[in-house]
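Backbone-to-sequence.
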């Protein structure tokens, strides 16, 4: 049993019996009946292993710390919904409308949920959770998570590799043609630029990723407007990685290889 369940109000009855209203949905798991006997089975898969890693990372506590507070009427905590999405991306990559059905195949406690909470994993609720993630997943959360991973898994940050690529979009995206703000956060522009898929006819975003030399573990990522040049992203990335590495002597990158950077903190 995980830490989240122990934090909930103590009660011998599940949430639905404490006055919550639930939409009628099929019960989680698979059922088979014969005569007076009914058998319910649940999948397990790789979830125990994934849960063990997520617990060591301290992701749940960091989400609770950095995500916007839930509305008191929210039945399913946003941090729990996002953790279900994280597990889905790692194990199955179902579309958002299929995540609820995917999760219903597994034992609910593997998601740290009560049985009556599984039907709440609708695409609408998960969509609201992603909005909250957009507002709450800030550099401070990413850096705090990476620091946890560095300590827990003894990760070396002596050398970091940084590179960028483009994410190509099909469609007009007129509302995202210029940089702006949403929910108090800066939003990049989906627009034309130097497309690395060799599709100058399509709009794009620039995606920047930094990984460790020790196992190529991702430690930082961000997105920029599609028309931003690679070299304009290096200074901000460098400053954040200096904070992460805890190195006060961060004057400039060690060397440059094409559009990629190798940052040496030794």
């Amino acid at each position: 049993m995980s830490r989240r369940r122990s934090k909930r109000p103590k009660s011998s009855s599940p949430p639905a019996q404490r006055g919550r209203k639930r939409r009628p949905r099929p019960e989680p798991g698979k059922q088979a009946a014969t005569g007076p006997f009914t058998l319910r089975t649940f999948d397990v898969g790789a979830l125990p292993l994934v849960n063990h890693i997520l617990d060591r990372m301290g992701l749940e506590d960091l989400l609770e710390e950095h995500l916007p507070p839930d509305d008191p009427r929210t039945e399913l905590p946003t941090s729990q919904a996002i953790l279900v999405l994280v597990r889905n991306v790692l194990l199955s990559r179902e579309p958002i409308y299929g995540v609820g059905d995917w999760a219903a195949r597994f034992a609910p406690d593997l998601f740290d949920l009560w049985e009556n909470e599984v039907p709440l994993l609708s695409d609408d609720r998960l969509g609201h959770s992603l909005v909250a993630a957009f507002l709450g997943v800030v550099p401070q959360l990413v850096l705090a998570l990476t620091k946890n991973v560095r300590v827990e898994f003894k990760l070396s940050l002596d050398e970091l590799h940084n590179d960028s690529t483009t994410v190509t979009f099909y469609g007009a995206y007129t509302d995202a043609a210029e940089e702006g703000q949403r929910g108090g956060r800066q939003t990049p522009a989906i627009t034309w630029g130097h497309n690395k898929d060799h599709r100058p006819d399509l709009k794009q975003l620039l995606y920047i990723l930094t990984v460790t030399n020790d196992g190529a573990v991702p430690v930082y990522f961000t997105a920029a407007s599609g028309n931003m040049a690679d070299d304009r992203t290096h200074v901000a990335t460098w400053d954040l990685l200096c904070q992460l590495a805890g190195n006060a002597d961060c004057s400039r990158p060690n060397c440059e290889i094409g559009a990629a950077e190798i940052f040496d903190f030794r």
